[in-house]
Amino acid sequence: MPNSPVSNGPAPNSPVPPAPVIRIDTPGSFARSVFHERHPVLLRQVLDALPYGPQQRADLAELLARSTGGGPLHPPVGDDPDAARWQEWGAGLWGRSWDEAPFLWAESYFYRQLLDATGYFRPGPWQGVDPFAPFKTAELAGPSVDGELAALDHPGATRPEALLSAALWGNRADLSFRLTAEDGSAAPDLVADDSAALWSALERGRGGRVGLIADNAGRELLPDLVLIDHLLTSGLAGHAALYVKPHPYFVSDATTADTLATLTRLRTAPGRAAAATGERLRRAVADGTLTIRTHPFFCAPLPFDAMPADLRDDLAGATLTILKGDLNHRRLVGDRHWPPTTPFAPLTSYFPTPVATLRTLKSDVAVGLAPATLTRLDATATRWRTDGRHALIQFRA
């Protein structure tokens, strides 16, 4: 197959030689299993969760058939608000087979077309209805969340290291991943840890602006918000910017509506510490100390090295930008088959601020690992790149 015309990183001026783009046409690959195993389960759950009508059900079935059967890629049509952007983002791919698209691009477009099939973008009774809202709501209301929030009342629970760890491992709370993940009990493993450098950077820039590009809503966003509260109350950040998706994306990705629901969950929690945190964050949003921001590019099928100038300007000037989750990590370093010992810093040199990533490994991309760590992981003969039991904290000044 020829290489796709769509870029998937690294930065154009990166000193690291490019690696092959991850694709969905490789038999037995994780990327292919997402389309052929995870997506059918997801669509069944979406149809079970909301009473979509016959046309919506037919459109979802057609989407699944095209995306798993090598059907042609067609651009959005009509007056959809993102149609022009997708025409540009898919230049060189329209008319070609789904199997010819890079994994990052194809997965992004699948979720965009899922929204289209359910009527999310079109005027009518289903416009603006989040097809994943039932899953997000159920998770946030679950009894396990009460226990997690009550833990904030325990001595030591608000130590900076504990809060960072909670935000890191909260990334396991990914509804899309849990659709097909095996229920294993193996102990989690931190395979790269730049947390000391991360805290040092925050201390050096004390009182500056810190950005956090969110990943999932619900049980992941809760510890993210608690971490933001700590940065503000400790003075490590004078202002925080929380970046969320402009519309539903990848099942559990956080939007502004999800953020407000999560703040309410904090404020109404039975534990005193959680409720106080929720109140402080609500006041911070009201007085502008914490701003919730978004941009269409957060739902783009492209790596962050292709970000537009206005988003780059928005991010610039921060003491640190923290990227949460697997998808943001893939977009940060490029969704490619990098050798896992490829250094993290050169791949992210284009990013407009110092950057840290908190990620649970749930896809094939891996960079910045020590050779000894890689040897240990490979010796386990497990799917360590995709099983969600390994995580990393990486930082570039």
Automatic annotation (TrEMBL):
Location of the region described as Disordered in the Swiss-Prot/TrEMBL record: 1-20
GO MF, one annotated term: metal ion binding
Domain annotation Damage-control phosphatase ARMT1-like metal-binding: ranges: 35-370
Catalytic activity annotation: beta-D-fructose 6-phosphate = dihydroxyacetone + D-glyceraldehyde 3-phosphate; beta-D-fructose 1-phosphate + H2O = D-fructose + phosphate
A biological-process GO annotation: DNA damage response
Superkingdom of origin organism: Bacteria
Keywords from the named record: Hydrolase, Manganese, Metal-binding
Cofactors named for this entry: Mn(2+)
Biased composition (Low complexity): 1-11
Classification via InterPro entries: ARMT-1-like_metal-bd_sf, ARMT1, ARMT1-like_metal-bd
Similarity remark: Belongs to the damage-control phosphatase family. Sugar phosphate phosphatase III subfamily.
Protein name per the record: Uncharacterized protein DUF89
